[in-house]
Amino acid sequence: MPRTNGYRGVSRDAAQKHYDVSDEFFQIWLGPSLAYAGGLWEDGADTLEKAQLRKTDYLLGQAGIRPGHRVLDVGCGYGAEMQRMVEEYDADSVTGITLSEAAVEWTRNLAIPRTEIRLENWIDHRPAQPYDAIICVEAMEHFARPGMSGRAKTRGYREFFSRCRSWLRPEGRLVIQTITWGHRFPWDLDLLRGLYLASKVYPECNPSYLTELQAASDGLFDLVALRNDFDHYARTLRCWLENLDADRDRAAQLVGEKKARDFERCMTTAVRAFSEGWLHLHRLTFRPVPEPVGPARRFLVNNVLARDSLPTPKFLG
Ligand SMILES: C[S@@+](CC[C@H](N)C(=O)[O-])C[C@H]1O[C@@H](n2cnc3c(N)ncnc32)[C@H](O)[C@@H]1O
Protein backbone atom coordinates (compact mmCIF):
# COMPACT_ATOMS: atom_id res chain seq x y z
CA MET A 1 0.00 0.00 0.00
CA PRO A 2 1.26 3.54 -0.62
CA ARG A 3 2.64 5.41 2.36
CA THR A 4 1.24 8.60 3.87
CA ASN A 5 4.51 9.69 5.50
CA GLY A 6 2.77 9.19 8.83
CA TYR A 7 0.33 12.09 8.33
CA ARG A 8 -3.12 11.04 9.59
CA GLY A 9 -5.11 14.11 8.53
CA VAL A 10 -6.54 16.69 10.89
CA SER A 11 -5.83 15.93 14.57
CA ARG A 12 -8.76 15.07 16.81
CA ASP A 13 -8.03 18.21 18.86
CA ALA A 14 -8.19 20.49 15.83
CA ALA A 15 -11.36 18.81 14.51
CA GLN A 16 -13.05 19.14 17.90
CA LYS A 17 -11.96 22.77 18.22
CA HIS A 18 -14.05 23.48 15.13
CA TYR A 19 -16.92 21.00 15.39
CA ASP A 20 -17.50 20.54 19.11
CA VAL A 21 -18.54 24.07 20.05
CA SER A 22 -22.34 23.90 20.37
CA ASP A 23 -24.94 21.82 18.51
CA GLU A 24 -27.47 24.62 18.95
CA PHE A 25 -25.09 27.15 17.37
CA PHE A 26 -24.73 24.96 14.26
CA GLN A 27 -28.47 24.34 14.17
CA ILE A 28 -29.17 28.08 14.07
CA TRP A 29 -27.50 28.53 10.70
CA LEU A 30 -27.20 25.04 9.17
CA GLY A 31 -30.91 24.41 9.76
CA PRO A 32 -32.64 21.34 11.22
CA SER A 33 -30.83 18.75 9.05
CA LEU A 34 -27.46 20.02 10.35
CA ALA A 35 -26.01 19.26 6.91
CA TYR A 36 -22.62 20.98 6.92
CA ALA A 37 -21.98 20.92 3.16
CA GLY A 38 -22.97 22.69 -0.04
CA GLY A 39 -26.52 21.97 -1.25
CA LEU A 40 -27.70 21.21 -4.79
CA TRP A 41 -29.90 24.03 -5.99
CA GLU A 42 -32.46 24.40 -8.74
CA ASP A 43 -33.20 27.69 -10.48
CA GLY A 44 -35.78 30.03 -9.02
CA ALA A 45 -37.53 29.56 -5.69
CA ASP A 46 -35.84 26.90 -3.63
CA THR A 47 -35.05 26.43 0.05
CA LEU A 48 -31.94 25.38 1.92
CA GLU A 49 -33.64 22.23 3.20
CA LYS A 50 -34.75 21.22 -0.31
CA ALA A 51 -31.27 21.92 -1.70
CA GLN A 52 -29.68 19.78 1.04
CA LEU A 53 -32.09 16.92 0.44
CA ARG A 54 -31.54 17.13 -3.33
CA LYS A 55 -27.78 17.01 -2.75
CA THR A 56 -28.16 13.94 -0.51
CA ASP A 57 -30.35 12.19 -3.08
CA TYR A 58 -27.94 13.06 -5.88
CA LEU A 59 -24.98 11.61 -3.96
CA LEU A 60 -26.85 8.50 -2.82
CA GLY A 61 -28.18 7.98 -6.35
CA GLN A 62 -24.65 8.22 -7.74
CA ALA A 63 -23.54 5.71 -5.09
CA GLY A 64 -26.28 3.35 -6.34
CA ILE A 65 -27.64 2.68 -2.84
CA ARG A 66 -30.21 -0.15 -2.95
CA PRO A 67 -32.20 -2.12 -0.36
CA GLY A 68 -29.89 -4.46 1.51
CA HIS A 69 -26.69 -2.48 0.85
CA ARG A 70 -23.89 -2.00 3.36
CA VAL A 71 -22.55 1.55 3.25
CA LEU A 72 -19.70 3.51 4.82
CA ASP A 73 -20.06 7.29 5.38
CA VAL A 74 -16.61 8.83 5.95
CA GLY A 75 -16.96 12.09 7.89
CA CYS A 76 -20.66 11.53 8.58
CA GLY A 77 -21.25 14.67 10.70
CA TYR A 78 -24.72 14.78 12.24
CA GLY A 79 -25.97 11.80 10.27
CA ALA A 80 -28.40 13.34 7.71
CA GLU A 81 -27.12 11.08 4.92
CA MET A 82 -27.09 7.99 7.16
CA GLN A 83 -30.71 8.56 8.15
CA ARG A 84 -31.84 8.97 4.54
CA MET A 85 -29.98 5.81 3.44
CA VAL A 86 -31.81 3.71 5.99
CA GLU A 87 -35.25 5.33 5.88
CA GLU A 88 -35.65 6.04 2.15
CA TYR A 89 -33.17 3.69 0.44
CA ASP A 90 -33.61 0.73 2.81
CA ALA A 91 -29.87 0.21 3.27
CA ASP A 92 -29.16 -2.81 5.44
CA SER A 93 -26.38 -1.25 7.48
CA VAL A 94 -24.66 2.12 7.51
CA THR A 95 -21.42 2.81 9.34
CA GLY A 96 -20.56 6.45 9.94
CA ILE A 97 -17.16 7.63 11.11
CA THR A 98 -16.24 11.09 12.31
CA LEU A 99 -13.70 12.86 14.52
CA SER A 100 -16.34 14.95 16.28
CA GLU A 101 -17.52 13.73 19.70
CA ALA A 102 -20.51 16.06 19.56
CA ALA A 103 -21.61 14.53 16.23
CA VAL A 104 -21.24 11.01 17.61
CA GLU A 105 -23.38 11.82 20.64
CA TRP A 106 -26.00 13.63 18.56
CA THR A 107 -26.28 10.85 15.99
CA ARG A 108 -26.37 8.09 18.63
CA ASN A 109 -29.26 9.93 20.31
CA LEU A 110 -31.19 9.86 17.03
CA ALA A 111 -31.16 6.04 17.42
CA ILE A 112 -31.47 5.47 13.66
CA PRO A 113 -31.98 1.73 13.13
CA ARG A 114 -29.27 -0.28 11.33
CA THR A 115 -26.64 2.42 11.78
CA GLU A 116 -23.43 2.49 13.75
CA ILE A 117 -21.51 5.67 14.42
CA ARG A 118 -17.90 5.64 15.51
CA LEU A 119 -15.40 8.22 16.68
CA GLU A 120 -12.76 6.97 14.28
CA ASN A 121 -10.25 8.18 11.72
CA TRP A 122 -10.68 6.44 8.35
CA ILE A 123 -7.01 5.44 8.62
CA ASP A 124 -7.92 3.22 11.56
CA HIS A 125 -11.05 1.77 9.96
CA ARG A 126 -11.07 -2.03 9.50
CA PRO A 127 -14.41 -3.24 8.10
CA ALA A 128 -15.57 -6.77 8.91
CA GLN A 129 -17.06 -7.19 5.40
CA PRO A 130 -16.84 -5.28 2.11
CA TYR A 131 -19.12 -2.32 1.43
CA ASP A 132 -21.49 -1.82 -1.50
CA ALA A 133 -20.86 1.92 -1.45
CA ILE A 134 -18.76 4.55 0.29
CA ILE A 135 -19.64 8.23 0.52
CA CYS A 136 -17.44 11.04 1.80
CA VAL A 137 -19.11 14.45 1.99
CA GLU A 138 -16.75 17.35 2.67
CA ALA A 139 -14.34 15.49 4.93
CA MET A 140 -11.50 15.38 2.41
CA GLU A 141 -10.67 19.03 3.08
CA HIS A 142 -9.26 17.74 6.38
CA PHE A 143 -7.01 15.05 4.88
CA ALA A 144 -4.12 17.49 4.15
CA ARG A 145 -2.86 20.42 6.19
CA PRO A 146 -1.56 23.82 5.06
CA GLY A 147 2.08 23.75 4.02
CA MET A 148 2.03 20.20 2.58
CA SER A 149 3.47 19.87 -0.90
CA GLY A 150 1.23 18.75 -3.74
CA ARG A 151 3.17 15.49 -3.79
CA ALA A 152 2.64 14.82 -0.07
CA LYS A 153 -1.06 15.70 -0.36
CA THR A 154 -1.48 13.37 -3.33
CA ARG A 155 0.27 10.54 -1.47
CA GLY A 156 -2.21 10.95 1.42
CA TYR A 157 -5.22 10.99 -0.93
CA ARG A 158 -3.88 7.92 -2.72
CA GLU A 159 -3.79 6.07 0.58
CA PHE A 160 -7.46 7.02 1.04
CA PHE A 161 -8.40 5.81 -2.47
CA SER A 162 -6.41 2.65 -1.99
CA ARG A 163 -8.17 1.84 1.30
CA CYS A 164 -11.60 2.62 -0.20
CA ARG A 165 -10.89 0.32 -3.13
CA SER A 166 -9.90 -2.52 -0.79
CA TRP A 167 -13.11 -1.99 1.25
CA LEU A 168 -15.48 -1.94 -1.74
CA ARG A 169 -17.11 -4.79 -3.65
CA PRO A 170 -15.93 -4.80 -7.28
CA GLU A 171 -19.22 -3.30 -8.50
CA GLY A 172 -19.36 -0.75 -5.65
CA ARG A 173 -19.14 3.04 -5.94
CA LEU A 174 -17.18 5.71 -4.13
CA VAL A 175 -18.86 9.14 -4.11
CA ILE A 176 -17.04 12.22 -2.89
CA GLN A 177 -18.19 15.79 -2.44
CA THR A 178 -15.34 18.14 -1.68
CA ILE A 179 -14.28 21.76 -1.79
CA THR A 180 -11.24 22.15 -4.05
CA TRP A 181 -8.91 25.01 -4.91
CA GLY A 182 -9.66 26.84 -8.13
CA HIS A 183 -6.93 27.89 -10.51
CA ARG A 184 -6.52 31.50 -9.41
CA PHE A 185 -4.74 33.29 -6.64
CA PRO A 186 -6.66 35.88 -4.62
CA TRP A 187 -4.60 39.06 -5.14
CA ASP A 188 -6.96 40.97 -2.92
CA LEU A 189 -6.19 41.98 0.65
CA ASP A 190 -9.72 41.55 1.93
CA LEU A 191 -10.01 38.05 0.51
CA LEU A 192 -6.55 37.08 1.75
CA ARG A 193 -7.45 38.30 5.27
CA GLY A 194 -10.64 36.22 5.13
CA LEU A 195 -8.79 33.11 3.92
CA TYR A 196 -6.22 33.60 6.69
CA LEU A 197 -9.02 33.79 9.25
CA ALA A 198 -10.53 30.62 7.73
CA SER A 199 -7.26 28.80 8.45
CA LYS A 200 -7.81 29.64 12.16
CA VAL A 201 -11.52 28.76 12.17
CA TYR A 202 -10.86 25.51 10.26
CA PRO A 203 -7.49 24.50 11.71
CA GLU A 204 -5.26 22.03 9.80
CA CYS A 205 -7.53 22.17 6.78
CA ASN A 206 -6.30 22.34 3.17
CA PRO A 207 -8.53 21.44 0.22
CA SER A 208 -7.22 19.47 -2.74
CA TYR A 209 -6.82 20.40 -6.38
CA LEU A 210 -8.90 18.29 -8.74
CA THR A 211 -5.67 17.27 -10.47
CA GLU A 212 -4.35 15.88 -7.15
CA LEU A 213 -7.47 13.72 -6.81
CA GLN A 214 -7.11 12.51 -10.39
CA ALA A 215 -3.46 11.58 -9.84
CA ALA A 216 -4.25 9.96 -6.49
CA SER A 217 -7.03 7.77 -7.90
CA ASP A 218 -5.27 6.91 -11.18
CA GLY A 219 -5.17 3.16 -11.74
CA LEU A 220 -7.37 2.48 -8.68
CA PHE A 221 -10.68 4.05 -9.75
CA ASP A 222 -12.31 5.30 -12.94
CA LEU A 223 -13.90 8.71 -12.53
CA VAL A 224 -17.36 8.16 -14.03
CA ALA A 225 -19.14 11.42 -13.13
CA LEU A 226 -17.90 14.86 -12.20
CA ARG A 227 -19.59 18.17 -11.59
CA ASN A 228 -18.37 21.49 -10.28
CA ASP A 229 -21.13 23.35 -8.42
CA PHE A 230 -19.13 26.28 -7.03
CA ASP A 231 -22.09 28.64 -7.43
CA HIS A 232 -24.27 26.23 -5.41
CA TYR A 233 -21.92 26.68 -2.48
CA ALA A 234 -22.15 30.47 -2.72
CA ARG A 235 -25.96 30.15 -2.54
CA THR A 236 -25.76 27.75 0.42
CA LEU A 237 -23.46 30.14 2.27
CA ARG A 238 -25.79 33.08 1.66
CA CYS A 239 -28.58 31.10 3.34
CA TRP A 240 -26.32 30.16 6.25
CA LEU A 241 -25.45 33.84 6.71
CA GLU A 242 -29.14 34.85 6.62
CA ASN A 243 -29.99 32.20 9.22
CA LEU A 244 -27.15 33.33 11.45
CA ASP A 245 -28.17 36.94 11.11
CA ALA A 246 -31.76 36.11 12.07
CA ASP A 247 -30.64 34.63 15.41
CA ARG A 248 -27.38 36.48 15.89
CA ASP A 249 -27.77 37.34 19.60
CA ARG A 250 -28.51 33.76 20.57
CA ALA A 251 -25.54 32.55 18.45
CA ALA A 252 -23.19 34.92 20.27
CA GLN A 253 -24.60 33.82 23.63
CA LEU A 254 -23.82 30.20 22.75
CA VAL A 255 -20.24 30.52 21.47
CA GLY A 256 -19.18 34.06 22.33
CA GLU A 257 -19.21 37.19 20.15
CA LYS A 258 -15.73 36.61 18.69
CA LYS A 259 -16.45 33.09 17.43
CA ALA A 260 -19.82 34.09 16.00
CA ARG A 261 -18.14 37.01 14.17
CA ASP A 262 -15.28 34.79 12.92
CA PHE A 263 -17.72 32.27 11.42
CA GLU A 264 -19.64 35.12 9.83
CA ARG A 265 -16.52 36.64 8.30
CA CYS A 266 -15.34 33.26 6.99
CA MET A 267 -18.69 32.62 5.35
CA THR A 268 -18.76 36.09 3.82
CA THR A 269 -15.29 35.50 2.37
CA ALA A 270 -16.33 32.06 1.16
CA VAL A 271 -19.32 33.52 -0.75
CA ARG A 272 -16.82 35.62 -2.73
CA ALA A 273 -14.30 32.80 -3.03
CA PHE A 274 -16.89 30.43 -4.56
CA SER A 275 -18.61 33.07 -6.71
CA GLU A 276 -15.33 34.25 -8.20
CA GLY A 277 -13.76 30.81 -8.66
CA TRP A 278 -11.02 30.79 -6.01
CA LEU A 279 -12.77 27.76 -4.58
CA HIS A 280 -14.72 25.04 -6.39
CA LEU A 281 -17.19 22.42 -5.21
CA HIS A 282 -16.62 19.06 -6.84
CA ARG A 283 -18.93 16.06 -6.70
CA LEU A 284 -17.16 12.96 -8.00
CA THR A 285 -18.34 9.40 -8.63
CA PHE A 286 -15.74 6.65 -8.90
CA ARG A 287 -15.93 2.96 -9.80
CA PRO A 288 -13.10 0.60 -8.88
CA VAL A 289 -10.72 -0.50 -11.63
CA PRO A 290 -10.94 -4.32 -11.76
CA GLU A 291 -7.22 -5.06 -11.84
CA PRO A 292 -4.83 -2.20 -11.07
CA VAL A 293 -1.94 -2.42 -13.57
CA GLY A 294 0.27 0.29 -12.12
CA PRO A 295 2.71 2.54 -13.98
CA ALA A 296 3.41 -0.17 -16.63
CA ARG A 297 -0.08 0.51 -18.05
CA ARG A 298 0.82 4.04 -19.11
CA PHE A 299 4.01 2.83 -20.76
CA LEU A 300 2.23 0.01 -22.60
CA VAL A 301 -0.65 2.23 -23.73
CA ASN A 302 1.58 5.07 -24.94
CA ASN A 303 4.24 2.90 -26.54
CA VAL A 304 2.36 -0.11 -27.85
CA LEU A 305 -1.38 0.56 -28.25
CA ALA A 306 -1.12 4.21 -29.22
CA ARG A 307 1.83 3.85 -31.61
CA ASP A 308 0.87 4.59 -35.17
CA SER A 309 4.25 3.91 -36.73
CA LEU A 310 4.09 0.13 -36.26
CA PRO A 311 2.67 -2.04 -39.04
CA THR A 312 -0.83 -3.30 -38.17
CA PRO A 313 -0.60 -6.96 -37.15
CA LYS A 314 -2.62 -9.29 -39.43
CA PHE A 315 -5.02 -10.36 -36.66
CA LEU A 316 -6.06 -6.71 -36.07
CA GLY A 317 -6.25 -5.72 -39.75
C1 LIG B 1 -17.80 19.55 7.08
S1 LIG B 1 -18.15 18.14 8.05
C2 LIG B 1 -19.29 17.31 6.95
C3 LIG B 1 -20.20 16.39 7.70
C4 LIG B 1 -21.24 15.65 6.89
N1 LIG B 1 -20.65 14.80 5.89
C5 LIG B 1 -22.24 16.60 6.29
O1 LIG B 1 -22.36 16.62 5.06
O2 LIG B 1 -22.94 17.28 7.03
C6 LIG B 1 -16.65 17.13 7.93
C7 LIG B 1 -16.68 15.85 8.74
O3 LIG B 1 -15.51 15.08 8.41
C8 LIG B 1 -15.01 14.48 9.59
N2 LIG B 1 -13.61 14.08 9.35
C9 LIG B 1 -12.57 14.86 9.00
N3 LIG B 1 -11.43 14.13 8.89
C10 LIG B 1 -11.77 12.85 9.17
C11 LIG B 1 -11.05 11.62 9.23
N4 LIG B 1 -9.73 11.57 9.00
N5 LIG B 1 -11.71 10.48 9.54
C12 LIG B 1 -13.05 10.53 9.80
N6 LIG B 1 -13.80 11.66 9.76
C13 LIG B 1 -13.17 12.81 9.45
C14 LIG B 1 -15.24 15.54 10.65
O4 LIG B 1 -15.19 15.01 11.94
C15 LIG B 1 -16.64 16.03 10.25
O5 LIG B 1 -17.63 15.17 10.79
UniProtKB/TrEMBL annotation:
Protein name: Class I SAM-dependent methyltransferase
Keywords: Lipid metabolism, Methyltransferase, S-adenosyl-L-methionine, Transferase
Any one GO molecular-function label of the UniProt entry: methyltransferase activity
Species assigned in the record: Streptomyces telluris
Biological processes annotated in GO: lipid biosynthetic process; methylation
Protein family: Belongs to the CFA/CMAS family.
One Pfam match: CMAS
Classification lineage: Bacteria, Bacillati, Actinomycetota, Actinomycetes, Kitasatosporales
Protein's UniProt keywords contain Transferase: yes
InterPro entries noted in UniProt: CFA/CMAS, CMAS, SAM-dependent_MTases_sf
Transferase keyword on record: yes
EC annotation from Swiss-Prot or TrEMBL: 2.1.1.-
